[in-house]
Amino acid sequence: MEKKKKLGLVPRLIIGIILGILIGSFLPEPIIRVVITMSTLFSTFLKFVIPLMILAFVTMGIADLTQGAGKLLATTAGISYASTLVAGTCAFFVAITLFPKFISADVIQSIGNPEEGMLDSFFSIPLTPIMDVTAAVALAFILGLCISSMRGKEIGDTCYNFFSEFSKIINKVLNVVIIPLLPLYIMGTFANMTVSGQTFAILSVLWKVFLVVICLHLIYLVILFTVSGTISKKNPIGMLKNQVPGYLAAIGTQSSAACIPVNIKCAESNGVCQEIRNFVIPLCANIHMAGSMITITCCVTSVLLMSNMEINLGIIVPFIMTLGIAMIASPGAPGGSIMSALPFLPMVGIGTESALASLLIALYITQDSFGTACNVSGDNAIAAIIDLIYKKFIKKEEKKESDVSEDAEAEPEGN
């Protein structure tokens, strides 16, 4: 018996957008408000889960980061974070230069305030999060750093195992409840925007943003591999060709974690030694988010421009720097990075539960495959640099220390 193919998240999301537009255009107000009520209830639950998600995934991400070779870990994490910051900052400069050319004053005027003219839900259920997002981030850092430094020395594995299982529980909630219901959430948002008369003005802009984002992904990869190839003295074109299987696997799976086996093979083709490829590729799958950062930065910039809200380097850079850390070990499900970003949207003036936030989710997930492919491919550019550092500096240093140790042991025998 053949296994039935499940409809992917992106097709379901597109169906949700279409249904939302149709519902908002043709159905009577009471039915539209029913859909909006369901979307609002989901939004309340999402707000409750977000601090738990931050606590679970960031704690485990930091706890796992210090398990490995100290110098290599610090170097890999530093390069990955720098790459993510550079990608986001460059994306902002491109977006702020190009987007105003097609997000004109007429479009901004036709959109107006996205919150005006929208319908209210019939009712809502008060569900207060256990802690606010700032407290969740602070607690996650404290716990993650303490577990990583004390585990196996001052404490056992109990705390580590607890948060490992806790993160699996939250991941289950995301995969079974949050991700499957996202199309309903988006459907309610687009139904409400259609009622307020803003949907088509917004959609006329988003497809252009989509094209710019994908071009930025590809350009950034070419630059990253050129820099990596120059530093490691490898042919960047050959490295890019070797990366094609990893890129395609990421587009198909939308998961950095699922691409690790294929990506390790790509690293092997690029001449990266076994020790480094087995260390760097799984690590960067969790901490290198250049593609996701490009997408989120462009999406946020476009939404702020469409809403005629303030946007400048002073606003976006702190957001990028915070998000670069918050996305550590973001869940492997499609849309995991934008879920990690939601609590920090108020930094740029977008409410976590606002229509603009759900618009960002819709725009992000429709191209999540390409963002993941950029993340995964960039991991191998970093692996080539770390491989050079390992062979040129660390391995030689370890050999010297080994030779000195052997000489010290052999000296008493000579006496």
TrEMBL record:
Q: Which GO terms describe its cellular component?
A: plasma membrane
Chain ranges passing through the membrane: 9-28, 78-103, 123-147, 173-193, 205-231, 311-329, 341-364
State the annotated membrane topology for this chain.
Answer: Multi-pass membrane protein
Indicate where this protein resides in the cell.
Membrane
List the Pfam families: SDF
Organism annotation: Velocimicrobium porci
One GO molecular-function annotation for this sequence? neutral L-amino acid:sodium symporter activity
- Name of this chain's protein: Dicarboxylate/amino acid:cation symporter
Q: What is the lineage of its organism?
A: Bacteria, Bacillati, Bacillota, Clostridia, Lachnospirales
Has the keyword Transport been applied to this entry? yes
- Cite a single GO BP annotation: serine transport
- Can the keyword Transmembrane be found in this entry's annotation? yes
Alphabetic keyword roster = Membrane, Transmembrane, Transmembrane helix, Transport
